[in-house]
Specification:
The protein has helices spanning 11-22, 51-58, 72-87, 100-112, 126-135, 161-174; strands at 2-6, 26-35, 62-67, 91-93, 116-118, 139-146, 185-191, 199-209, 214-224. It has 227 residues and is of the alpha/beta class. Strands 3-2-1-4-5 form a five-stranded parallel beta sheet, sandwiched between helices. Strands 7-6-9-8 form a four-stranded antiparallel beta sheet. Helix 3 (72-87) crosses helix 4.
Length: 227
């Protein structure tokens, strides 16, 4: 089945693609939507200029859209409709985990345009999602934090066994969602088995508001490394 994939460049997008490919899906296009609002209910998007590097490494075309806060849903529908028609897709793949708001919007758009909605991470145990990063050899770095216990020391770190253990301890103490579904953190994937080349970060900076408990890892320069 031919499909397009809604793509933020983060761990859930990439893991959803990996799982869909294993199930025999053919992914013809990545669709990335850059929101106007920094904290959007519909889109999770960090380091938007870098999805083009991921697209190149995966050898999958990228269609990039920009959305104003007042017409996020309309932009999403246009992006899905246009890309699916352009690439002859029959389905839309997403990395949605637990957001009923997101799922309902995409379900409605897919139904209206006669497309299947494929969501391999939906309601999956957060522990299993993080373990999937390890087993599928997906290298995801933390690019934003916004939860008790997470600070500037976590920004730019790869989600490995040590980080997973840290997240589990924070869950026990602060009841955070260790998969980041509650907005606790966001990620950017720099390497995966479906990448022909890893993404090498040449320059990055950290912004952290200790009073507000929020921070960003801003990738300022990156390129594809050697395969």
């Amino acid at each position: 089945m031919k499909a397009i994939s809604l793509f933020s460049g983060g761990k859930d997008s990439v893991q959803a693609i990996c799982l869909s490919l294993k199930r025999g899906m053919e992914i013809n296009c990545l669709v990335s939507i850059v929101p106007e609002a920094e904290y959007s209910k519909l889109y999770h998007f960090q380091n938007p200029c870098l999805t083009s590097l991921q697209s190149k490494s995966m050898n999958i075309p990228l269609e990039l859209y920009r959305s104003k806060e007042k017409n996020e849903v309309e932009t999403l529908e246009k992006a899905i409709k246009d890309a699916s028609e352009l690439y002859g897709a029959e389905a839309v793949i997403t990395g949605i985990i637990a957001s009923k708001y997101q799922k309902e919007k995409i379900d409605r758009i897919c139904k209206k345009n006669n497309l299947d909605h494929i969501f391999p991470l939906w309601m999956k145990n957060p522990n299993n999602i993080l373990e999937g990063l390890i087993s599928n050899k997906i290298k995801a770095i933390i690019t934003r934090v916004s939860a008790a216990g997470l600070n500037d020391q976590h920004l730019g770190k790869v989600i490995d066994r040590e980080i997973i253990d840290t997240l589990k301890k924070l869950k026990a103490k602060y009841r955070i969602n260790i998969s980041g579904e509650g907005g606790e953190y966001e990620t950017f994937v720099t390497d995966a088995p479906i990448f022909s080349n890893p993404i090498e970060i040449d320059n990055a900076s950290v912004e952290f508001d200790s009073d507000g408990g929020r921070g960003k890892y801003i990738i300022e320069k990156a390129d594809l490394g050697a395969d």
